[in-house]
């Protein structure tokens, strides 16, 4: 591949304004602001598969404006450019957004596993595999996620996945100290179950995986919701000082009192403001305890805090998403995600381990299971996932 | 571990906030404001000293006590009496009474003048005639009669008039009290963290801003100035200014009067491009596609020529962008240095907490963390640019803007 531009295929669910596909594929064809210039990836996205084409579809507009990117009716044809053999050097799998049925537990059945299986089927028939990036968690179904991971290992191709939370700006711009001993870590964020909970879990995991000894996996998880959330809060199930630190990193703290624009809420005010809050409390094999809190109405950003040995107060930061909610127009947190993918496609090496996302995929499913099972503790022997973090920091600082 | 990470970790733990006095008697503050209603500057900044603010991962409670408030106007939504009642201070009918807490002697340890928002006339240059100078005069009259002064913070530019602004600075020197002024832009977080090296040689600089004139261009000019002032030789003032509008701005770009390369770099830092990004979310190289003249029908360019020969340009491109970005070419450094001055969302506007911390620092230490001359100079640059506009967009020599000062050695923007 030396000296040649890699060719990519994007396998996606929908391509509409502000879908993940639009954010990611646009960055390949339009370029994007990076390192102080308008960066064009040193590769060509030549084929596109879109599973659902609705009235708000943009894929046809993009294909017309960028004729080198062709739309194919099947995943196999997208990967082979109609030649019958794998014709690309990398695959971007974006299975987020679109109309898909829900499981009885409320999980949206995005077809990432099906897409992945069709991709590796082409790899197998072609006798050759290429790097794959999977946006967000691997699958809503843990067994399938595990199979995706195992397949990538068996076939020996580079595999990266996950959320932009792990790679976006941090405010302040700090990294979790490598090798630190950490007792408790917590994320306060917002959004739904089987949705933004995954982003909160990635926020936590991209930090705590850098702790002393690296990642050891997770032993159990318990979810709390609504009244049980507040009972757990009252009983100090998770540390209140980390909640305070995380909330003090938020830029979207709902003013608790009329007439104020930025005021720290009391516990009673938090309870009044946060709608149907959800907590996932879980313990890693080495004893680290983590808590992911979805506090809709109270905040709409992602804030991290941890108790680190030797520090006199919580270590904390915000994973900043310039969310296009009216205040911004570009979801530029997809820029560092795209850049990390590009590095994998250029070097054949993931910039951070897919085991992170395998673990957070399992944690997301465990959270859903715990809620579905009446907010009981779920033992997670299947999440005994050990890995070491990337040596270099990969979040956005340039 | 990379060296800077160790340093950052240290910053977070050991020096989370400047060493501000948290013990002893709280410093007594008077707030002199145009109006005090939700989302006015007086409420944003004043409340930081009443209910505290988020800073360095804590809810920081300054060791201060607001003891008096003056409001010039009480529009619908006025909160002054309500706030005073709840927090045990008084709203006084005059500025003098506020700084004397109703008595005959100066009765506060610091004064915050927040003259932004409210209904005031506009002059022929389009400037809103906020009475900051008048407030300041009434405050310092008390200082003079008392023979004693306390620190003063003035929000945003000193005055719409450079003459008045200079008088304010001169008075602070004469009466020997620390004075801090300006907006949040110089002290908010930057994406990415960029500081120009002190003593660098700036070959070219460009700022991109958004919003109307007078409220917003001051912010953009001040953000640009806090970068430019770090150049070799320190700040020595401005030799000339010119403000042009419309197609002339694009023609000036074609003629190389401002750098397209710097504009591309500045726009690459924007999270808020308009045009097609609004329509369908796409990323854009607005310089490369040449789309800017179609989107921005009335661009404004502010050309600043400094006395040491350095040139800088502010482009107000409201129809194309919604944020504040900066780019510069530095001698001896490859590429272009660029960043975004981060304005966090309403209603929290946490960037004003960064500013509150600087004000608190001055109140507690008696030393302004950065020179008021920056704001003095920017007040004058803005006025002269607006003069240029009403004088047929002529280039104006600005001998009165020979304002010299040294930038603070330490970076002052928020990184914690």
Could you please describe the fold and organization of this structure?
The complex is a heterodimer of chains A (398) and B (416). Chain A is of the alpha/beta class and 398 residues long. Chain A is 30% helix and 20% strand. In chain A, strand 4 (44-50), helix 2 (59-65) and strand 5 form a beta-alpha-beta unit. In chain A, helix 4 runs parallel beside helix 5 (142-155). The two termini of chain A are 28 Å apart. In chain B, the strands form 3 sheets. Chain B has an 8-stranded mixed sheet, with helices on both faces. Chain B has a 6-stranded parallel sheet with strand order 5-4-1-6-7-8, with helices on both faces. In chain B, strands 2-3 form a two-stranded antiparallel sheet. Helices cover 34% and strands 19% of the residues of chain B. Chain B is an alpha/beta fold and 416 residues long. Chain B has 14 helices and 16 strands. The radius of gyration of chain B is 21 Å and the shape is globular. The model of chain B is unreliable at 1-18 (pLDDT under 50). Classes of the chains: A alpha/beta (398), B alpha/beta (416). Chains A and B meet through helix 1, strand 2, strand 3, helix 8 and strand 15 of A and helix 1, helix 2, strand 2, helix 9 and helix 10 of B.
Main features:
heterodimer, A: 398 residues, alpha/beta, eight-stranded mixed beta sheet, six-stranded parallel beta sheet, 20% strand, B: 416 residues, 14 helices, 34% helix, globular, disordered N terminus
Strand residues, percent of chain B: 15-25%
> Regions of chain A with pLDDT < 50 over 5+ consecutive residues?
none
Largest sheet features of chain B: 8 strands, mixed
- Oligomeric state of shown chains: heterodimer
Structure summarized in a few sentences:
By secondary structure, chain A is an alpha/beta fold. Chain A has helices spanning 20-29, 59-65, 75-80, 112-126, 142-155, 196-208, 227-234, 240-247, 267-273, 334-347, 355-372, and strands at residues 7-12, 32-34, 37-39, 44-50, 70-71, 90-94, 132-135, 159-162, 170-171, 182-189, 218-225, 278-284, 289-294, 302-308, 315-319, 377-379. Chain A is globular and about 65 Å long.
